[in-house]
Specification:
- The chain is α+β, with helices and mostly antiparallel strands.
- Helices cover 40% and strands 13% of the residues.
- The strands form four sheets. The chain has a six-stranded mixed sheet. Strands 8-7-12-9-10-11 form a six-stranded mixed sheet. It has a three-stranded antiparallel sheet with strand order 13-14-15.
- Helix 1 crosses helix 2.
- The longest helix is centred in the C-terminal third of the chain and has 21 residues.
Length: 615
């Protein structure tokens, strides 16, 4: 491509309002590539142990990779910071026009690194590798309203916006950063809250999307091969057929769909919110295979509709019907889509927000909440879409004691009111909607994820539930570790999640065609190296074996008798097997031998407790 390989970081200090460009050492580019890897290295170097994620000292990185704009699939960029929800490393990925235009806006830079805190709400604009700051009047606005205002007047259509909504401004610890008016979200660990803590309302990028016609002939040929391979793969056929919303139908069929706050594992209303309901409601499909639907939020109908045309549309992905539908006992697809659209406009992570509401309903049922806590607490009920809407809106702005507590996450609310065994979390992050009671390997993936419970680091449930014989602990441990390493690599490149997992050579041929010399084995080593570095970051923050546990809520059987409770002793044996596979000690600390084997010896500081011994 005509764009030169990026070799620098663009640092913006909001304390001083200044920007500077600095080189990324060649050795670091080789070892960490870009995306997650470069973000992890920046975060490890920039932060001291114990840094408050919502302080000016935290770093917020927007990173691209060596294959950004060259791979088939949805363009993506990485957002990396220290999570205000979990206190761990967090990386989140977002697609759309912002991710497509970011590489050219950064020019020779691999990442934008934002530090400090502005004196007043501001907007950061990137163009041609430069950065400028300006005050904004968009504070208090929703994501689509902000996007429309900042892109207004751009007749060439070469501007894209990443911004926060009210949830980020109020530092909800699972607030998102939205692009394309909220159609795409960088979610889970609270990257939007970090952005809000810096009083940074939006990042606006100006520039063209990568020109695929400018790819070298050899690179274009490889890209075409990758595209064909993806569409011929099981993953490609699945996405082409139904997008990610079909995961609800799958999870319900095999009995791993958390229902009504993790009580049951099948939802009797699944067909009303599953893929066929989405297809029937859709009027368009997105580039990533998901469906665009109308919602009940026609402009001006509800207080949070913000009067924009985008308020009447949403793109519900797999988590929306699973968490806001089955998880809250709502079997009306229009209501579920409307709730998903509300989360996208306010900047709330769907999984964390849905689980927070589910916890509140169960906590009220169990007597942990009363009118003394919140006048509306005792009226909460599964299946009440309007009640869910009111609570989500309150959470985004921390309106009332219950909403304020829920804005800090399920673990924080349970610590405050009781009920810590109702809805499962790992490192304070609510579990996504694959119930690990049906897959012990999935429980391991949740427990050992570097950003708290996550179904995208590894998805062994998809295969283990169909196994004709019991998996051994070694197989579970090796499967989870291998998937984690592979996805870690793909997020260094930065690849579309689903296209990336189908690359036959992990991207080696396309890298070679663009001038990067890696074998497949070297690329997988990058993934393991970066996964190990994020573990070292978390170990330095004080995380250990005790934090890689099995939540109490999944130790009990489901109420519909679909699944037995997960056995804590069996899980502990599995966790030990995983540590052995990883080369970590019994406390979950990487060993010195592993650090040296992965060429991290010059990276790790004295504050990080590395285990002695062999890997």
């Amino acid at each position: 491509m005509s764009r030169r390989p990026p070799t620098r970081l663009l640092r913006v200090d909001l304390d001083t309002g200044t920007a500077r460009s600095e080189p990324v050492p060649e050795a670091d580019r080789r070892r960490f590539l870009g995306g997650k890897g470069i973000g992890a290295k920046v975060l490890y170097d920039d932060l001291r142990a114990g840094t408050d994620p919502l302080s000016s000292a935290n770093s917020l990185c927007f990173a691209v990779g060596p294959l950004s704009g060259s791979l088939p699939g949805e363009p993506r960029c990485a957002v990396v910071t220290k999570s205000p929800l979990s206190g761990t490393f967090v990386d989140s990925y977002v697609g759309g026009s912002f991710a497509a235009r970011l590489p050219n806006a950064l020019d020779r830079h691999l990442a934008l690194v934002v530090t400090g805190r502005a004196d007043e709400p501001c907007v950061l604009r990137l163009s041609g590798g430069g950065a400028t700051l300006s005050p904004t009047e968009q504070w208090g606005k929703t994501i689509p309203a902000t996007d429309a205002a900042l892109a207004d007047g751009d007749s060439d259509g070469d501007v894209a916006v990443a911004c926060i909504g009210p949830a980020g401004e109020h530092r909800v610890r699972y607030a998102t950063i939205g692009t394309d008016g909220g159609d795409h979200q960088a979610g889970r660990g609270g990257v939007g809250a970090v952005m809000g803590s810096k009083r940074l309302k939006a990042v606006v990028v100006e520039g063209d999307s990568p020109d695929l016609s400018a790819l070298p002939e050899a690179a274009a040929a490889v890209r075409e091969q990758y595209t064909d391979h993806y569409h011929d793969s099981d993953t490609g056929r699945w996405i082409d057929a139904g997008g990610t919303v079909e995961t609800l139908d799958f999870a319900n069929e095999v009995g791993i769909l958390p229902t009504r706050g993790w009580q049951a594992d099948r939802f009797e209303g699944a067909e009303n919110v599953g893929v066929e309901a989405v297809r029937a409601a859709a009027h368009a499909r997105e580039a990533d295979g998901d469906f665009r639907v109308a919602t009940a939020d026609a402009a001006g109908t509800h207080p949070d509709s913000d009067g924009s045309a985008d308020a009447a549309e949403t793109v519900p992905r797999g988590a929306t019907p699973m968490v806001l539908g089955a998880g809250l006992g709502i079997d009306d697809f229009d209501a579920v889509a409307t709730l998903g659209g509300l989360c996208d406009r306010l900047g709330l992570d769907v999984i964390s927000a849905g689980n927070a509401v589910a916890w509140a309903v169960r906590a009220a049922d169990e007597g942990y909440l009363s009118e003394a806590v919140d006048p509306d607490a005792t009226d909460l009920a599964f299946g009440d879409a309007e009640g869910v809407r009111r609570l989500l809106s309150a959470i985004a702005r921390r309106e009332g004691p219950l909403a304020d507590a829920l804005a800090d996450g399920v673990t924080a609310a349970a610590t405050r009111f009781g009920g810590d065994d109702l809805v499962p979390t790992v490192k304070s992050v609510a579990l996504p909607s694959y119930d690990p009671r049906g897959s012990l390997a999935m429980a391991l993936a949740y427990a050992t994820s570097d950003r708290g419970a996550c179904h995208r680091r590894a998805r062994p449930a998809v295969t283990e539930v169909f196994a004709t014989e019991e998996w051994s602990n070694e197989r579970r441990a090796r499967t989870v570790a291998a998937e984690q390493d592979l996805r870690s690599l793909l997020w260094c490149l930065v690849a579309d999640d689903f296209v990336g997992e189908t690359l036959p050579d992990h991207g080696a041929a396309l890298l070679a065609a663009l001038g990067f010399d890696y074998t497949e084995e070297e690329l997988l080593a990058v993934g393991e190296r970066v996964w190990t570095l994020t573990r070292l970051f978390n170990v330095r923050e004080g995380f250990d074996h005790a934090d890689d546990g099995l939540p109490a809520a999944v130790r009990r059987p489901s109420t519909d008798a679909v699944r037995e409770g997960a056995d804590p002793a069996a899980f502990d044996d599995l966790l030990s097997a995983y540590y052995d596979v990883r080369g970590w000690d019994a406390e979950g600390r990487p060993t010195r031998a592993l650090v040296e084997r992965l060429d991290l010896g010059d990276v790790v500081d004295d504050a990080t407790p590395v285990a002695p011994g062999d890997s």
